[in-house]
Amino acid sequence: MKVAKFGGSSLADANQIRKVCDIILSDKDRRLIVVSAPGKRNKEDTKVTDLLIALADKYYKEGKADAELQAVIDRFDDIVKGLELSSDVTQMVADDLKKRLECSNGDKDKFMDTMKAAGEDNNAKVVAAYLISKGINAEYVNPKDAGLLLSEEYGNARVLPESYENLKLLRERNKIMIFPGFFGYSKKGDVVTFPRGGSDITGAILAAAVKADVYENFTDVDSVFAANPNIIDNPKPISTFTYREMRELSYSGFSVLHEETLEPVYRMEIPVCIKNTNNPSAPGTTIAPTRKLDNGPVIGIASGTGFCSIYISKYMMNREIGFGRKVLSILEDEGLSYEHIPSGIDNMSIIIEQKQLDKVKEERVVKRIKDELKVDDIKIEYDRALVMIVGEGMMSTVGIAARACSALAKANVNIEMINQGSSEVSMMFGIKAEDNVKAVKALYDEFFN
Amino acid sequence: MKVAKFGGSSLADANQIRKVCDIILSDKDRRLIVVSAPGKRNKEDTKVTDLLIALADKYYKEGKADAELQAVIDRFDDIVKGLELSSDVTQMVADDLKKRLECSNGDKDKFMDTMKAAGEDNNAKVVAAYLISKGINAEYVNPKDAGLLLSEEYGNARVLPESYENLKLLRERNKIMIFPGFFGYSKKGDVVTFPRGGSDITGAILAAAVKADVYENFTDVDSVFAANPNIIDNPKPISTFTYREMRELSYSGFSVLHEETLEPVYRMEIPVCIKNTNNPSAPGTTIAPTRKLDNGPVIGIASGTGFCSIYISKYMMNREIGFGRKVLSILEDEGLSYEHIPSGIDNMSIIIEQKQLDKVKEERVVKRIKDELKVDDIKIEYDRALVMIVGEGMMSTVGIAARACSALAKANVNIEMINQGSSEVSMMFGIKAEDNVKAVKALYDEFFN
After folding, report:
1. Which residue, A219, A237, A272, sits at the end of a domain?
2. Which chain A residue lies closest to B431 (C-alpha atoms)?
3. What is the pLDDT of residues B270-289, one digit of tens each?
4. Average pLDDT, whole number, for chain B?
5. One domain for residues B165 and B24
6. Chosen domain end from B191, B219, B247
7. Burial per residue of B203-240, b for 16 or more beta-carbon CB atoms within 10 angstroms, e otherwise
8. Residue B42 DSSP class
9. Which residues in chain B are closer than 8 Å to A418, comparing Cβ atoms?
10. pLDDT in tens, A340-362
């Protein structure tokens, strides 16, 4: 059994929905389908979810938003007509929206979640109606009936553990199931939505619950690439990489999935396949628990800018028990998350995303570290880039660091920080942000050309 | 004004003391002299301090230890005779020891400190008596009179801040002052000793207090070397290195000073010169706040074995605020100090000295990290070596990492961990302990041959 999730751009109009249904029908194992709300049809278009937010906002304030309501109905009507379905389907959508608007006299967060969820919910019904109209044994599945129970955190819900037992039963249904993404229900029976990446989360939960053979995630790219296509022309596509490699590549800036969303399938060791709705015959990219190491030691190069390094030095730092813990406690108090802590004997550099620091917070953090830890020196170096080379094969290959460092030296890139833990699945170089493009090119040439 | 400290082997017998006095007199700036207790005259010999401990232990238990007392008196008498001093000097030592033994009916720690300090104290008096017998304007300085006040932590005292104001006045005395190392006095007036390296600490405190031009530390080596002489034949001597470089080289296993002891001179930016009593014309090694970078980018290679790496992995670790702090809190609770924390996105390796972990503690730490932090994986990798290349010049030189990694690759050493903070004064490689010698040789060849 395969769980397939289709994103908003894959379901933006009738034509796209036809493509999606062809994809569904082309593989009899694709039985549990997660759909997003209709996305943008072109660059200037508005996503249905954004139309719904505008509708809900205005209606909550003014008790009336006829034009905004009509805009949503028109988007669905357009799809219904394009799919040559009965106008009853549009009427069903309109009735559903009106019913949801009736909740506007309660809690705003609850109302917003009810409204936002309408895009996925109605789209699932439309897709199911279309498949049924073609004589396919398909059905819309209501997340409430299926038992997708979430914590009562509007807009930021987490799945409750009992959901998995409930959803497991979907495995037994002998139909193609169309399941709306992005939301579930609280124990009280109210609609609650996931944070961003919501439909991906629904798909991952379903795939884990039914122990799917694969979780297919259809987007609008053919595959994940070995390097950022904005830096490297036509970078090599990655056919398979491991969860660990995917995580280490997360600075890449060309990520197609929120990795948080994959935790349920990661735990169940279910492979994820990223495929292109508009080119479904392309093999896509598979993320698996393990892979054959037949592709060279390095599978990808990721880089990100916008980092800074907080450099701290103190004589005899390495003999002061509790020093590192105290530094990290101060960062935690200030809500700062860090990436790496490369260190010398008497100094440490804490690498963080610099957007986390404004002038006030920076001054407070520096003052606290100075005063509470009596350091000899502290300074913040801005505009650093982190460049990572990633690959499970690096562990078993002597000389990777030599090749990487030599390539960077030849490109005249000064390596300010280096970090490699004993997993040996990645190696990090901290450099000046201005050297980022040069560094990625040099490393790509070394390991891929 | 120079402060010169002479260690136990430099003062082991009359001949050595004559050499020391020649050294003192050969430079009129050497005016404040710190002496240790007489050390070993040969490999089988016993240090006076150890004789004193044996005497004190037995006397405390049995109220009598004639043979042990005589052994100490004999050592001093030997020196006194060798220096052709009056037998009154030996009598003074014997009287002093007997007076100290009278304190045996009190607190044991206090008694032990009083007894241990007798080695340095009487040796300072003997050296002063010898200089005076030669017609030199010299004097023994009593730390109590000079105002060297310490915390009341027997065997582990710290200097009290007011000592610096008191000791500053020594600058004004127009004599060669012989100051016993290793001990001072509590505010109550009792003898208290420093932890190990005690005479070095006394010297550093005096040098800082009188703002010495240099703190000379006379031992029995000509200089500090660029690599461990047990691994590299005739390694290059280091003529000058910085405090930071000295600290980064502290894994070297051929350290001649306890670095903790240098904190007072480090703070005052006073250079330290390590010299050989038996070869005083050799230039020695100077440790200074800064140095000319005229010696190549790498000044030394240090390595140490006996480390292990605690490897922890958890999906989405880098997004879990507080994760690192919690790991370090557990280590702190368990009294473990760590060296470095190289990391990937979802994993961290904590490098610690493995002698800190016994089986029971290991199991407890692993269990706590598993249970409290819900990690995916934790394992301990034993018998790792840390190899450091160190040099202030590395910062301004592109390509050091490439040269180091290439040298290690050529020697077929697999680099498991790499760590370099933005100070760029050192680069650490974590490798298997069995590769340690191979790695040091390869790096020495690369940077020094």
Report:
1. A219
2. A422
3. 999 999 999 999 999 999 99
4. 94
5. yes
6. B219
7. bbbbbbbbebebbbbbbbbbbbbbbbeebbeebbebeb
8. S
9. 401, 418-420, 427
10. 999 988 999 999 999 999 999 99
Contacting residues for A59 by C-beta, under 8 A, at least 6 apart: A65, A68, A69, A101, A104
> How many other CB atoms are there within 10 angstroms of residue B250's CB atom?
20
Q: In Å, how far is A400's CA from the nearest CA of chain B?
A: 8
Q: Are residues A205 and A318 in the same domain?
A: no
Chain B residues in contact with A414 (beta carbon < 8 A): 398
| A399 contact residues in B (CB cutoff 8 A) | 405-406, 409
Confidence band of A254 (pLDDT split at 50, 70, 90) = low
| A419 contacts on B by Cβ (under 8 Å) | 342-343, 418-420
Give CA–CA dist A131/A123, Å, rounded: 12
CATH of the domain at A346: 3.30.2130.10
Say which residues have a Cβ less than 8 Å from residue A407's Cβ, sequence separation at least 6: A442, A443, A445, A446
Q: Is B307 annotated as contributing to ligand binding? A: no
Q: Is B290 a known ligand-binding residue?
A: no
The whole-angstrom distance between residue A155's C-alpha and the CA centroid of its chain comes to 16
Q: How many domains does chain B have?
A: 2
Domain containing A166 equals 2-219
User: Is B198 marked as binding a ligand?
Assistant: no
A6 belongs to an annotated ligand binding site: yes
Contact B344 A401 (CB under 8 A): no
What is the pLDDT confidence band of residue B260, given thresholds at 50, 70 and 90?
A: confident
Same domain, B195 and B90: yes
Pairing of strands A30-35, A176-180: parallel
Locate the chain A residue with the closest alpha carbon to B245.
Answer: A345
A223-227, A430-434, B195-199, B327-331: range with lowest mean pLDDT: B195-199
Number of CB pairs < 8 Å for A and B?
A: 198
Quick check: A417 and B422 CB within 8 A? Answer: yes
- Asked if the structure places residue B247 within a domain, the reply is no
Residue to mutate among A196, A251, A325, with most B CBs inside 10 A, is: A325
Count CB-CB contacts under 10 A for residue A379. 11
Q: Does residue B396 have a pLDDT over 90?
A: no
Q: Which of B250, B328, B343 is facing A421, going by the closest CB pair?
A: B343
Probe site for chain A from B262, B338, B408, B420 (most A CB atoms < 10 A): B420
Output A229-238 pairs: Cβ under 8 A, ≥24 positions apart: A229/A254, A230/A254, A231/A303, A231/A437, A231/A440, A231/A441, A231/A444, A232/A440, A232/A441, A232/A444, A235/A444, A235/A448, A236/A448, A237/A285, A238/A285, A238/A299, A238/A300
* A90 annotated as ligand-binding: no
B322 interaction partners in chain A (CB closer than 8 Å): 328, 332
Cα–Cα nearest to A220, from A262, A275, A271, A180: A275
